[in-house]
């Protein structure tokens, strides 16, 4: 089955909810890495680098616009199937009304292991008065202890780049894992992280993208 067909099948089971009020987040955002946390925990934990485009995409499928609202990852296999329990890593759009269509850089300190994307919320609008969201929770996304969307891995003492996330509009709105291509541009991207997180040692960063069969293309830097 082609990837786009699988995407549409997957999308069809995600509940669409018409919002009567502001689009709120289900879970609190995970704090990005601090200098003190990095200095005390970087040997036993892993550093995860990623970027997110929170901006609106206009003319997105059958919608006037769409934007990534929030998403989250669980250490696999999840310790609970209860959707009320927040994922281990949560990212929320910091300003949905004013988000610009640029990639924002994030760095997190996480226990080592494999993390699956288990929570997703995409805000969509057909008009100013018709606003809703596609929301997929842990109970929608986990099958046999694995995420139906995809996963990434981080090792103890490692710093790993897993990609750039945003909305794709080839058909209906979906999350998509993009990536920074080529060694030169990747180094420029790391320089951005260094400017924002000057206490991180980014001399040796693993380039290992969030792995997915449906929501991103495969790519790796040549050695």
TrEMBL record:
<protein>
    <recommendedName>
        <fullName>Lipoprotein</fullName>
    </recommendedName>
</protein>
């Amino acid at each position: 089955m082609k990837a786009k067909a699988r995407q549409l099948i997957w999308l069809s089971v995600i509940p669409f909810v018409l919002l009567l009020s502001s689009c709120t987040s289900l879970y609190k955002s995970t704090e990005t890495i601090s200098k003190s946390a990095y200095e005390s925990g970087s040997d036993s934990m892993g550093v995860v680098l990623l970027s997110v485009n929170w901006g609106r995409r206009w003319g997105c499928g059958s919608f006037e616009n769409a934007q990534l609202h929030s998403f989250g990852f669980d250490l696999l296999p999840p310790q609970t199937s209860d959707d009320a329990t927040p994922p281990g890593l949560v990212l929320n759009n910091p300003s949905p009304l004013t988000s610009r269509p640029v990639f924002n850089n994030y760095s997190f300190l996480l226990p080592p292991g494999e993390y699956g994307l288990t929570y997703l919320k995409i805000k969509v609008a057909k008009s100013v008065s018709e606003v809703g969201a596609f929301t997929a929770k842990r109970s929608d996304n986990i099958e046999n202890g694995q995420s139906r969307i995809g996963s990434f891995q981080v090792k103890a003492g490692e710093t790993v780049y897993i990609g750039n996330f945003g909305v794709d509009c080839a058909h209906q709105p979906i999350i998509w894992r993009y990536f920074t291509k080529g060694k030169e541009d990747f180094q420029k991207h790391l320089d951005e992280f260094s400017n924002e997180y000057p206490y991180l040692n980014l001399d040796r960063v693993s380039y290992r993208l969030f792995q997915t069969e449906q929501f991103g293309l495969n790519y790796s830097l040549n050695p």
